[in-house]
Amino acid sequence: MSKAEDTMAILKLYELRRDEAMRAARQWYFTDFSPASAMDIVELFRGGERASANFRMVTSYWDTAASLVLNGGIDRKMFLDANTEHVFIYAKISDLLAEVRSLFRDPDFLIHLENLVLSMPDFESKMESRKRLIAIWTRKAAG
User: pTM for the full model?
Assistant: First the structure.
């Protein structure tokens, strides 16, 4: 891909994040979603309500975006320079992900998102930073 094509792909990803439903889902994920256990995530899927749709919309969006990067569809450096939200998305569920995968019997659940975040040279410091933000931005954690 040329730099211009990479740029357009990144701008398209940004445009998709501006969709009204996606904005609402992201706002829910950032402020209201506060899983204490893997079962909290499993219950989202069982509930089939708005929270389930929000969770699936946000996590599948970032897992897909990560897959595009990992498979060379978007320049990795450009993507990482332009985006950090995926680290927050992963940080919020990272401690629960192994158990969620086990409960779902899906070892590849959100694997692209995880692989991209873990492959970042400074992922430990980024995770620490995002976990601090989670404590500030999540209503249930703060309240």
Answer: 0.90
